[in-house]
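Render this sequence as a predicted structure.
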Amino acid sequence: AGLGIRFLKHLTRNRVLLHLVDVAPLDGADPAEAACAVIRELEAFSPTLAQRPRWLVLNKIDLVDEATLSECRERIVAALDWKGPVYSISAVAGRDTERLCGDLMTYLEEQQTRFREDPEAADQERAAQEQMQQEARDRIAALQAARAEARQARAADGVDDDDDVAVEYRH
């Protein structure tokens, strides 16, 4: 399915990314593999974005017992080689979200103060923002070129990509 280009482009404007991982996915997917897939997608879209500060947030803890949560947390942390903060929450139940929100607000306030007091840090942040925006533009252009090439190849092969659907517009 993927994260989507619009969403990824939006992420470039954030100073910290909350990497939410569903510990009880409805589709039965492996949470560790799902977490790794997100990292791969971030890296493919923008290596600079993939290096942004990121916090791991394990969600839906109300749907698993403590032993399952602990085992899942260990697998995800190991799969990601995670070194940063790890939070366990239930967003729908509001369980343990206050600590996450408080820590996030503190972090963002500290970053704002740092950028205000340290011109070099502010310049590095601006440079990272510009780099991420350029990487996003480059990735989007590459995807558009690949789509155009695929359309041309289908047309050259006589493949009709409208799946024989007739569209009728009415006013």
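Summary. The beta strands are 17-22, 54-59, 86-88. The chain has a mean pLDDT of 90.
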